[in-house]
Amino acid sequence: MLEQKPEKIVAFPQMGNYDVPAKYLLSNILNIKIIDIPKITNKTIELGVRYSPEFVCTPFKYTIGTLIEALDMGANVLVQAGGGCRYGYYSELQEQILKDLGYDFIFINLMSKGKKSLKKIINELKIIDSNFNIIKSLYYLTITIKMVKYMDRVDDYIRENIGFEVEENSFIRLNEEMLNSFKTVKTNVGLYLKYKYYFKKIKKIKVKKPLNHLKIGLIGELYTLMEPFSNYELERELASYRMSIKRYTNVYYLLFQKKRKSKKYVRYANEYIKYKMGADAADNIGRTKYLCKHNYDGIIHIKSTFCTPEIGAMPIINKICQEYKTPLLFFSFDSNTSEVGIKTRIEAFYDMIEGKSK
Amino acid sequence: MDKIKIGIPRGIVYYYYIDLWRHFFKKLDIDIIESPKTNKKIINEGLNYANDEMCLSLKIYMGHINYLKDKCDYILIPRIEDYGIDNQTCTNFLSLYDLANNMFDINILNYNIAYSKRQTEEKAFINMGIKLGIAKKISKKAYVYAKVMSAKDRKRKIIENMRKLSSSKLKILIVGHPYSINDEYVGTPILKYLDKLNVEYINAFDFNSTTTNKLSKNLSKDIYWKYSKELIGSIKLVEEKIDGIIFLSAFPCGPDSLVNDLVIRKINIPYLNLVIDDLDSLAGIETRLESFIDIIENARTKA
Question: Which residues in chain A touch residue B257, judged by CB atoms under 8 angstroms apart?
Fold first, then answer.
C-alpha cells in the first residue's frame, strides 16, 4: 500500500499587505495549501514574548507569535526570510524554540547568511514540492515582482494623500479592492490593466490638500515601518493630523533598489558618514539629509527596541536634524509601549511643527 | 617636528587587535597611548555620550575615546565588516568609525576590513601607513612582522589556556566576548570572584580560532558572526573536559541574544547565563556565582 503523504500546509509571518503577493507566488508555483494568517493581535504578541529570548529585537517576538498561531491552525511548513542584521539569524533559533515546544514541521529559510541566494531558494522550494517547476515559477515570479512594485507605488501615493481625503476610508477601500483583484490575475498584462484601472480611480478620489500642507518624512527600521501593528498604526495617526507622509522603505526598495541606492546614500551624506552601517542605517542617514534639504516639516524615526543598526544611526540623524533645524521625533516600539504615550508625543510634535511652519 | 602619537581606546576592537597594533606601530617607530583600564570616570563619560539603548560595551568604548581626545594626534578606530561572508561582525563594528566621527571632534585614524569586498587586513594596514605618510613597502614589512609576532603572543595565550584544562580544580568555561571578559568593570570582578572560589576559569576566546570557527557548525548551522562562532566552537572543543559554562554578555548584545539562547537549548552541561547591565549589581551576581559553583561542586563530589 502506498503511504499517504500528509498535505503540505504553508505559513509565513505577517508584514503589512505583503501576504497578498507572497501567497500569490507560493500558491501558483507549489502544489500546497496556504494558511490565511490572522492579523497580529495582542494574543500573538503575548505568545511571542513568552517564548522569545529576553533582549532580542521586537520583530523576533512578533514573528514567532504568528508562527505559533499558524502551527496551532495546522501549518506544517513555515517560511521565514530576512537579512542585513540579526534578522538573518532568526530562523534557526525560532525553529529550535518551536521544536522544543513539541511542534512537528519543516522550517524553510529563504535567506542564506543573511543574504539573498537564488540557489538556496530553489533548493528549499524543492523540499516543499518535488514537482517544483523552475520555468513556471520564473513566470509567476515576474508577475509577483511587478505586483509588489505596483502596490508599493500605489501605497506611496496613498501615504501622501490619505490625510486629506474628503470621504473617510475611500483610499483604504479602493486599495483593498485592488489587492483583491490582484489575487486572480494570470498574466503580466492582466496585472497591469488591473493596476492602471485602480490607480486611476485612486487618483480621482477627492482630496482637500492645501498648498502649504505639512510634510513628514518617515524613516527607520524596516519591519516596524512596514507592519502597522508593530508601530501602533502610526501612519494612520499621522494622517489624522492632515499631514502628507513620505516613506522610502518598502519591499520593492529592499529587494531591488537597496543595493544600488545604499551606495548613493552614503556618498550623498559623505560629510557625515563614510561607510554603510548595517541594515538600513546608512540609508536612513542619507534620507535624513535629503528630507532636511528639501524642506520637510519634520522627520519621524521609528524602530523596534534593541535594533542595533538603527541605534548606531540615531546620534548621526539627530546631528543632521539639528544642523538643518528640522524637528525630529524618535520612537522605539516594544510590545509594551503605551499607546497613549505615542498619541501624546505625536500631538506635541504636531503642535511644534505646525507652529514652526507659520 | 614632534613625533606623532596615536591613541588606542581600550574597548571592543582593542581586544582583538592590540598585539598586532603594538608590534606594527613599534616597528614603524610610532608612539601609541592606550587608554587606561575602565574606571568609574571613563564609564560615566561614556554614558554621557552614548545613546541609552547602546550596548554596555559600546558605551564604555565611548568613554575611552573621550579619555584620549586631547591626549594624542590620532585616535585609532577601525571598521570591521567581515572576514568573508560566513564571518561577519555585529553591526556595531560597522558603525564604530562613523559614530565616533560624528560624536567627537577628533582626528581618527581609520581602516576598513571587508574580505567579501576584497578589503583585506594587509591592505587595511598599508592604507593606514599611507595616511601616516609611510611608504607602502615599509608598512607592508611592518605588517608582516607584526602578524608573525602577534601570532606568537596569541599562541602563548592559547597554550596557557589549554594548560588550565588539565587542572584538578573545578573547571568553568567562560563564553563571552573578550571586550566583556577582559573589561575591568564587566568581566574582571567576575573572574576575581571565581578565583576566590578556587575555580579554574577557561577563556572561550583563547583557543585556535580556525578550529573553533569550524566546530561551531555542530551547534549552529546558520551562524554567520565570526566572533560568536569562535566562542561557541570552543564549547564543542572542550565540553568533555569542563564542569560548567558561564555565558557572559553585555546588555543588550545583539548576536548573544540569539546565539546564547540557541546554544543553551542544545548543550548538556550545567550553565549560568549572566547579562551585565547595571555595573553596581555585583553583589547579586556574586550570590548567583556562588550557588552555581556550589551546585556543580556537589554534583562532582557525588559522582
Answer: 53-57, 86, 306
pLDDT at A82 over 90: no
CATH of the domain at B293: 3.40.50.11890
Please list the ranges in chain B whose pLDDT falls under 50: none
| Domain boundary pick from B118, B152, B186 | B152
DSSP assignment of A208-256: ---TT-EEEEEEE-HHHHH-GGGGTTHHHHHHTT-EEEEE---HHIIII
CB contact, 8 Å: A330 with chain B?
no
| Chain B residues closer than 8 Å to A97 by CB | 265
What average pLDDT score do residues A229-251 get?
Answer: 94
Q: Give the whole-angstrom CA distance, residue B55 versus residue B249.
A: 10
Separation of first and last alpha carbons in chain B: 69
| Set of chain A residues whose Cβ sits within 8 Å of the Cβ of B54 | 311-312
CA-only gyration radius of chain B, Å: 20
Contact between B91 and A91 using a beta-carbon 8 Å cutoff: no
Nearest C-alpha neighbor of A275 from the set B293, B91, B187: B91
- Cβ of B224 within 8 Å of Cβ of A88? The answer is yes
Distance CA A10, CA A157 (A): 32
How does residue A96 score in pLDDT terms, banded at 50, 70 and 90?
A: very high
Is the Cβ of A263 closer than 8 Å to some Cβ of chain B? no
Q: Tell me: do B100 and B196 sit in the same domain.
A: no
Q: Is residue A115 very low, low, confident or very high in pLDDT (cuts 50, 70, 90)? A: low
**pLDDT, tens only, A155-204:** 999 999 999 999 999 999 999 999 999 999 999 999 999 999 999 999 99
Q: Clarify whether residues B108 and B201 are in a common domain.
A: no
Pairwise pLDDT comparison (B28 vs A337), residue with the higher score: B28
Chain B residues with CB inside 8 Å of A309's CB?
A: 91, 94-95
Instruction: Pick the residue from chain A with its C-alpha nearest to B87.
Output: A113
Nearest-CA residue of chain B relative to A114?
A: B224
> B104 — contact with chain A (CB < 8 Å)?
no
What is the b/e burial string over B36-52, where b = at least 16 CB atoms within 10 angstroms of the residue's CB?
eebeeebbebbbebbbe
Question: Between chains, do B95 and A55 touch, taking CB under 8 Å as contact?
Answer: no
* Residues of A whose CB is below 8 A from B62: none
Q: Which domain holds residue B54?
A: 5-152
